[in-house]
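Hi everyone, sorry if this is the wrong subforum. Our group has a chain we'd like a structural model of before ordering constructs, and none of us has done structure prediction before. Sequence below.
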Amino acid sequence: MLSSPGPDVRPGLPARPARAARRSSDRARNRLVLALAGLPLAVLAACGTVPPAPAASTAAPAPAGSDTVEPDQAGPSDGACEYTTTGTPARPVQPPTTTDISSSGTVSYVMHLTEGDVTLRLDRTKAPCTVHSFESLVAQKYFDDTRCHRLVDSGIFVLQCGDPTAKGTGGPGYTFPDELDGTETYGKGTIAMANSGPNTNGSQFFLVYDESPLPPSYTVFGSFNEESRQVVAGIASQGQDGSFGSSGGGVPNSPAKIESITKAS
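Answer:
Right subforum, don't worry. Here is the predicted structure as tokens:
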């Protein structure tokens, strides 16, 4: 083991460090300072940046009535769902009830578009919480007189609806978790939820009018038949304005307005 040089001791004089020891100590200290100075740069480069969270919006006053809306449903009620308030709804609406959710069978609705009717067959077994939310919004006429605001006609083939603002930013003032099993595909005639990331479902949904290679990240909650698909494909045939830029697609050139959604007889 190497030993440190001792102090230079002279009779009658106070002890003082040797000049060589002082130089050695200074060099070691300088190396340490340089090493520490480089450390934050390496850490910051590895961590990257994290954008600030958006400010929470203030919830709009709830319309008069009960705090939740129970959709008209048939079949056994045996489940529970979670709907989390997130901000101001695009149109006054109450969140759905969170208990006694029907989780079996299907239910059908007719979406009356300006271009024709689209029959929606919703699957309560596959996505009970999603269907329950959709039914609640239909019961409150949330979708009435709203435009399907986005058409994508290249790469994927979808018509996106469900935002009363028609800007792609509106929702019902609550979100709920995905209902996925990892096997989801998006073939023609699929109805699925749009989202802005995991577990951010609200009111926006999309209709797939041709095979679309999407990852299994969007809750599939129903289907529509070939006659209905032709209506959506007819809207797509009129093109879109490209206003969504790099996100893909744009506002449909055809009106694509939901006049109402009613329960199928």
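For your construct planning: Helices lie at 19-47, 128-139, 226-237. The first strand starts at residue 77 and ends at 80.
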